[in-house]
TrEMBL record:
The lineage of its organism: Bacteria, Bacillati, Actinomycetota, Actinomycetes, Pseudonocardiales. Residues 1-26 form the signal peptide. Pfam families: PI-PLC-C1. Keywords: Signal. GO terms for biological process: lipid metabolic process. This is Calcium-dependent phosphoinositide phospholipase C. CDD domains: PI-PLCc_SaPLC1_like. InterPro entries: PI-PLC-C1, PLC-like_Pdiesterase_TIM-brl. One of its GO terms (molecular function) is phosphoric diester hydrolase activity. It comes from the Bacteria.
Length: 375
C-alpha cells in the first residue's frame, strides 16, 4: 500500500511547479504580509458534515452510493486535522420547518421519525440526501456556522476558510414514494441564505464580492487587475462560495446583481462573465491540471478534489492527489484529511499538507514560507 502524504511530496511539487506570478498578485519584499489570500493552498473536506446512517438503514442503501464514511465535527476538523475548507450541502425547508423529520429510509428500516429539534424548526438544513442519506453533525446551516465561528474566534490568526455551499433539493423519485417536496431556490430562498449567513458571521469576519470589487469595474476585472485581499487582511475570516455552476440555478442570485452586488456568496462562474472570481474544476487530472494552473496564474480562486469516494481510499492511489496539489488550486477537497481514516477500506490513503496552509506551488513568491501563513 502506498501512503499518500501530501507533506512528503510538497517539496518536489514546489520545485517543479511554475512560479509565474501576475503583476496583480505579486508579493512585495516583505513576502508573508504582502502575500495575497489566493497565493496559498489549503486542504479541506468534501461533505464536511457527513455521518453514516445506522446499520439498519445502511441495509437499504446501495453500496455503490459510496455513502459509508463519516467526518468528525467541524471544530475537530479545524483543530486536529488542519482542515481549512469545508463543504456544506443545503436543502431549503418550508417556512414552518419540519419537512425532513421522517426520511423514507427510516420508514423502510422500521424506524420512527427523527427527533432532532433543529429539523423541526424553520431554516436551511444541511444534509446530503434528504430521504436516503440525511445523517449530519450539524443539521442546520446556522448551527454549522456557529460551530465554525466558535473555533475561528478562538484561533483568530487562521488562514481564511473557504466555505463551499451546494444548493440541493429533494429527489423527485423520493417525492413519488412519499417524501417531501422541497421549495425551489428562488429569490426568497436566496435572500434567506444570505440572511442566515449574516446572522452568524459578522461582516468583519467574512470576505464578500463587495470587498473585492473595485469602483467602475466588474468583479472579474477587479480580481484579475488588482487581486484578492492580502493574507494579512484575510486571516480569521470566511469566504462563501456557491458550488452549483448551472446558470439557471444561479439566475435568481445574480438577478439585478451581475457583479454580486450586496451578496455574500461568490458564484461558481466562468472566465468572461462579470461575476467570475471563483471557478470549480473537480477533476485535476490530465489536461484539466494545465487549465487549473492557467486559471490560478491569472488570478481566479479555484477548487478541485484530491479523491472521489471511495476510489482512492480503496486502492491507495495518489495520482489524483498529486495532480490536485501540483495544479495550484487554492482549495483541495478530500474525504480523508487525517491518517487512519481510509484503513477500513484497505489503504493508508490520506490527503494532508503537514501544515494548515502552504505556499501555493503555482503563484506564490519565492519569499513565501508555509510556516508563517498562520499566526
Amino acid at each position: 500500500m502506498r501512503i499518500a502524504r501530501a507533506g512528503v511530496i510538497a517539496a518536489s511539487l514546489a520545485a517543479c511547479a511554475g512560479l509565474l506570478v501576475s503583476a496583480a498578485n505579486a508579493a512585495g519584499p516583505s513576502g508573508r504580509e504582502d502575500l495575497r489570500m489566493n497565493q496559498i493552498q489549503v486542504i479541506g473536506t468534501h461533505n464536511s458534515y457527513h455521518r453514516e446512517l445506522s446499520r439498519a438503514e445502511q441495509l437499504h442503501q446501495s453500496a455503490s452510493d459510496n455513502l459509508w464514511y463519516s467526518h468528525a465535527s467541524l471544530p475537530v476538523q479545524f483543530e486536529r486535522q488542519s482542515v481549512r475548507h469545508i463543504e456544506l450541502d443545503l436543502t431549503p425547508d418550508s417556512d414552518r420547518g419540519g419537512l425532513y423529520t421522517a426520511p423514507i429510509i427510516r420508514r423502510d428500516a422500521g424506524l420512527g421519525p427523527l427527533t432532532d429539534p433543529d429539523l423541526a424548526g424553520p431554516g436551511i438544513k444541511v444534509m446530503h440526501w434528504a430521504d436516503h442519506d440525511y445523517a449530519t453533525s450539524c443539521s442546520t446551516l446556522v448551527n454549522c456556522l456557529r460551530q465554525a465561528r466558535g473555533w475561528s474566534e478562538a484561533h483568530p490568526g487562521h488562514a481564511p476558510i473557504p466555505v463551499l455551499l451546494e444548493l440541493k433539493q429533494t429527489d423527485p423519485a423520493m417525492e413519488q414514494l412519499g417524501g417531501p417536496d422541497s421549495p425551489p431556490w428562488d429569490a426568497k430562498r436566496f435572500a434567506d441564505l444570505d440572511a442566515e449567513i449574516r446572522s452568524v458571521i459578522p461582516a468583519d469576519q467574512m470576505i464578500t464580492p463587495d470587498d473585492v470589487r473595485k469602483p467602475g469595474l466588474t468583479l472579474e476585472q477587479s480580481v484579475l487587475r488588482f487581486g484578492w485581499p492580502k493574507l494579512a487582511e484575510a486571516r480569521g475570516k470566511f469566504v462563501f462560495l456557491m458550488d452549483n455552476s448551472d446558470p439557471r440555478q444561479q439566475a435568481p442570485y445574480l438577478e439585478n446583481r451581475p457583479n454580486l452586488e450586496g451578496r455574500v456568496l461568490f458564484t461558481n462562474s466562468a472566465p468572461g462573465r462579470p461575476d467570475a472570481a471563483f471557478i470549480s474544476q473537480n477533476d485535476p487530472t490530465g489536461a484539466n491540471g494545465a487549465r487549473i494552473r492557467d486559471l490560478v496564474k491569472r488570478g481566479y480562486l479555484v477548487r478541485t478534489r484530491s479523491d472521489v469516494p471511495l476510489a482512492e481510499a480503496t486502492t491507495g492511489d495518489t495520482a489524483r492527489l498529486e495532480a490536485a496539489l501540483a495544479s495550484g488550486a487554492q482549495i483541495v477537497s478530500t474525504d480523508f484529511p487525517a491518517p487512519g481514516l481510509a484503513a477500513r477500506y484497505g489503504s493508508d490513503y490520506v490527503a494532508e499538507l503537514g501544515t494548515p496552509a502552504r505556499c501555493n506551488p503555482v503563484n506564490a513568491p519565492r519569499s513565501c514560507r508555509s510556516d508563517q501563513l498562520e499566526r
